[in-house]
Amino acid sequence: MRSGKPPASPPPTVSPDGRFYWDGQRWVPLPAAGKTSDGQTAPSTAQASSNSGCGPVALALVVIAIGIVIIVAVESARNSAANCPSGQFCVTVTHWQSGSADVSGTIINATGSGCSDPEITLHLSDHNNAKVRDFTFGAGDLANDATRNWTTHMVGLLYVDLPAEPNVTQITADAVCADQHG
Fold this sequence. Notes:
Blueprint: E1 13-14, E2 20-22, E3 27-29, H1 45-51, H2 54-82, E4 88-96, E5 102-110, E6 118-125, E7 131-138, E8 147-153, E9 170-177
Antiparallel strand pairs: 1-2, 2-3, 4-5, 5-8, 6-7, 6-9
């Protein structure tokens, strides 16, 4: 069965500068944007076709940005292990919150030997870098050149929570091998 309509023709090829279209034999100037029936200015074919690619381009940019963030995070972790001076532990605090007793971080053993009982000491200080208090805990067995994430829940006598005080603005840490400094 045949309808009385001719087949739809494909949209014309528009020049990169958006001023001409290819009619199959030559480049023909595009008419200037005209008025629609309601008096509004209609976009030219070039404007309409250039807007259609925004979604995929924006998505590609987001994917690239996420990839860069992941690469930076991985390289940062690698560099922190590589930058730990020989002969010592390197301890970083990665997460803490005022009012919470939970603190997390990373420890790297670059001492040259394993340690069966590394002790991490957290140094809680205020905005003037004045000591508020210290908190020490055991980090468990750690082989030489090993890196491990750690988390502690600061508790005191009778297992009472010791949350970071409201005036604490910074927590730093260091470690020693308790079985070698007994």
